[in-house]
Amino acid sequence: MIVCHCTNISDADIRAAIDWMRASDSHAVITPGKIYHALGKSADCGGCMPLFLDTMRSNDKLEIPMQLRTLRSAASQEKAHEGRSQSHRIPQQIPAA
Prior knowledge:
Layout: E1 2-4, E2 9-10, H1 11-24, H2 32-38, H3 49-57, H4 66-69, H5 71-79
Antiparallel strand pairs: 1-2
Protein backbone atom coordinates (compact mmCIF):
# COMPACT_ATOMS: atom_id res chain seq x y z
CA MET A 1 0.00 0.00 0.00
CA ILE A 2 1.31 3.47 -0.86
CA VAL A 3 1.62 5.59 2.28
CA CYS A 4 3.23 8.73 0.80
CA HIS A 5 2.12 9.61 -2.71
CA CYS A 6 4.47 12.61 -2.99
CA THR A 7 7.59 10.47 -2.58
CA ASN A 8 6.13 7.07 -3.50
CA ILE A 9 6.82 5.36 -0.15
CA SER A 10 4.94 2.16 0.62
CA ASP A 11 4.22 0.46 3.93
CA ALA A 12 6.74 -2.22 2.91
CA ASP A 13 9.40 0.50 2.45
CA ILE A 14 8.71 1.84 5.96
CA ARG A 15 8.87 -1.63 7.52
CA ALA A 16 12.10 -2.43 5.65
CA ALA A 17 13.70 0.85 6.78
CA ILE A 18 12.75 0.20 10.42
CA ASP A 19 14.08 -3.36 10.22
CA TRP A 20 17.35 -2.13 8.69
CA MET A 21 17.80 0.64 11.29
CA ARG A 22 17.04 -1.67 14.21
CA ALA A 23 19.46 -4.31 12.85
CA SER A 24 22.24 -1.74 12.47
CA ASP A 25 21.67 -0.04 15.86
CA SER A 26 19.43 -1.67 18.44
CA HIS A 27 19.47 1.50 20.59
CA ALA A 28 18.46 3.96 17.86
CA VAL A 29 15.43 6.16 18.29
CA ILE A 30 13.56 5.79 15.01
CA THR A 31 11.69 8.84 13.74
CA PRO A 32 9.83 9.59 10.50
CA GLY A 33 12.70 11.86 9.45
CA LYS A 34 15.20 9.06 9.88
CA ILE A 35 13.01 6.74 7.81
CA TYR A 36 12.77 9.31 5.01
CA HIS A 37 16.54 9.76 5.17
CA ALA A 38 17.17 5.99 5.12
CA LEU A 39 15.00 5.76 2.01
CA GLY A 40 16.89 8.63 0.38
CA LYS A 41 13.81 10.86 0.32
CA SER A 42 12.44 13.85 2.18
CA ALA A 43 8.96 14.77 3.38
CA ASP A 44 6.96 16.99 1.08
CA CYS A 45 3.44 18.06 2.04
CA GLY A 46 3.00 16.10 5.29
CA GLY A 47 -0.47 14.85 4.35
CA CYS A 48 0.72 11.27 4.78
CA MET A 49 2.02 11.75 8.31
CA PRO A 50 -0.95 10.18 10.19
CA LEU A 51 -0.80 7.06 8.00
CA PHE A 52 3.02 7.11 8.08
CA LEU A 53 3.01 7.14 11.90
CA ASP A 54 0.35 4.41 12.09
CA THR A 55 2.47 2.26 9.79
CA MET A 56 5.54 2.89 11.95
CA ARG A 57 3.68 2.09 15.18
CA SER A 58 2.42 -1.20 13.79
CA ASN A 59 6.02 -2.48 13.46
CA ASP A 60 7.15 -4.62 16.42
CA LYS A 61 10.75 -3.44 16.05
CA LEU A 62 9.84 0.19 16.68
CA GLU A 63 9.67 -0.19 20.46
CA ILE A 64 11.76 2.13 22.58
CA PRO A 65 14.98 0.52 23.90
CA MET A 66 14.85 -0.32 27.63
CA GLN A 67 17.64 2.09 28.59
CA LEU A 68 15.72 5.01 27.04
CA ARG A 69 12.32 4.28 28.61
CA THR A 70 13.13 5.92 31.95
CA LEU A 71 14.56 9.15 30.52
CA ARG A 72 11.25 11.05 30.57
CA SER A 73 10.55 10.30 34.25
CA ALA A 74 14.14 11.18 35.20
CA ALA A 75 13.93 14.49 33.31
CA SER A 76 10.66 15.47 35.01
CA GLN A 77 12.18 14.73 38.43
CA GLU A 78 15.12 17.01 37.64
CA LYS A 79 12.77 19.84 36.62
CA ALA A 80 11.08 19.69 40.00
CA HIS A 81 14.38 20.76 41.59
CA GLU A 82 15.36 23.63 39.29
CA GLY A 83 15.39 26.10 42.14
CA ARG A 84 12.93 28.40 40.40
CA SER A 85 10.04 29.88 42.38
CA GLN A 86 6.52 28.75 41.54
CA SER A 87 5.53 32.04 39.96
CA HIS A 88 7.26 33.11 36.79
CA ARG A 89 5.76 36.59 36.82
CA ILE A 90 7.78 39.67 37.61
CA PRO A 91 6.66 41.04 40.98
CA GLN A 92 4.77 44.31 40.76
CA GLN A 93 6.85 47.30 41.66
CA ILE A 94 5.36 49.92 43.95
CA PRO A 95 5.96 53.36 42.43
CA ALA A 96 8.00 55.78 44.54
CA ALA A 97 5.90 58.57 46.04
